[in-house]
Design a protein that fits this description.
Structural class: mainly alpha
Shape: flat
Strand content: 5-15%
Largest sheet: 3 strands, antiparallel
Number of helices: 3
Strand order of the largest sheet: 1-2-3
Helix content: 40-55%
Radius of gyration: 36 Å
Length: about 130
């Protein structure tokens, strides 16, 4: 090693200047600026549940089905809700029965696989001893 390498400063790059933000975050914009920038429409609220589309009416404060125009007000739908609850309970009961049947079939399948593997191993032992 030469003496000049002992006294040299180690490599240290210059610190880069901080970058300037080129865009404004949507969180820093007010609502009017955000709606202009991203073409948002806050006047009509829409929602989709499955294949059904709903629109919110600001005057009545209720959601309406866009296809039928019916209100989704809970008081009007209470009769349907009770019938739906009965259907849900019936379906849950059927689901439980099917789950139990499925579990039984899994157990039977596992027993059959065990039986097949046992017969195969016995056959392999027999085949090796008589070969």
């Amino acid at each position: 090693m030469s003496s000049s390498s002992l006294f040299r400063k180690p490599f240290s790059p210059k610190k880069a200047p901080p970058r300037k933000a080129t865009t404004i975050s949507p969180l820093q914009m007010d609502a009017a600026e955000r709606s202009r920038e991203f073409m948002l429409d806050y006047t009509n609220a829409h929602m989709q549940l499955g294949s059904i589309y709903f629109t919110f009416d600001l005057e009545t404060g209720e959601w309406y089905n866009e296809i039928t125009g019916e209100s989704t007000h809970i008081a009007k739908k209470s009769k349907n809700i009770t019938s739906n609850n009965k259907e849900v309970k019936k379906i849950q009961k059927e689901n439980l029965v099917l789950q139990e049947e499925n579990n039984m079939l899994k157990v039977k399948n596992e027993i059959l696989v065990d039986m097949i593997s046992e017969v195969y191993s016995e056959f392999s032992e027999y085949d090796q001893s008589h070969a």
